[in-house]
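Before relying on records like the one below, remember that each one covers exactly one chain. Contacts with other chains, cofactors or solvent are not represented anywhere in the record.
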Amino acid sequence: MNRPSDQLGWLDQVSEDIIDQDIEIVDPHHHLWPGTPRTDGVSADNRYLLEDLWNDTQSGHKVLKTVFVECGQGYYESGSEAMKPVGETEFVVEVSEEAKQDTSKAQIEGIVGHADMMLGDSAREVLEAHLEQGQGKFKGIRHGASWDDSDEIRNSHSNPIQHIYLDDKFQKGVEQLDALNLTLDAWNYHKQISELTELAQCFPSLKIVQNHFGGPLGIGPYSNMREEVFSEWQESIAELAERDNVYIKIGGLAMPINGWGWHKRELPANSNEFAESHGRYYLHAIKCFGAERCMFESNFPVDKRSISYPVLWNGFKKVVEDFSTEEKEYLFYKTAAEFYSL
């Protein structure tokens, strides 16, 4: 079999009936990219706007609301460097207004933007500008902290320093976030989870959500260390969960950096393979945090390189098929809605 040249054609090779169609969903983690489409369908510059989001959220599951998470798009092209990320909030508000033309489809109800926490105290001005532009939808920020000393691992697009969570200037910026009652999305790799635990301890009233399971790596020097990484990750996640101000987004494991290699195959993953391969990560996180602090996330269109939206959510539902109705309500909807005050 030859792999189709376009990404959607490749994903469409795996089609499944939608299970548990009545479960209401908040997807608390997606991006928007007003980029130029490419024929290979795998570039981070790939276009992903409202039409594309709706094509995914309308594919069978009952997705009612979404939260946009920063990805360096729509920045102001002039003015101070510090204020440029506010343009992304303005851009997403415009898309969310466009979405109101059809309220039968998923609505973008939350925005997680970017402000440079290394600005320290002066980060407050940027946060206030986000709030002003956000029209009630701006919920907090993500300052990517993902860092690894291997040249084979790409660090976050915000070029973080090593040990950024423990840096005095970063923590001064986080003080401003805390003072404004905003949230912090934390994106880091598995070796940094313990540093996030320390940060959470410093700011016990700050609502923090760990993105993408804390990034258990599976490429570069970690490519043949799945069990060792899983063991280290398990322990770090259990310690992080002891901080009751920390929540976790359970998803994002289908990214190439996690090392499953699904994006290179002739066929994308199906929901059974997804549940079998990734299930233990989900079950461990839920065991540690409880359903009330866990939220399923699509991380689209990044995870779209490996699995389609309907198959992904089928996989989530299969992982927790034996859970109670109340637990499922938290995992699919309530935790995200409450964390982001949607």
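Strands lie at 24-30, 62-69, 107-113, 138-142, 183-186, 208-210, 246-250, 294-296.
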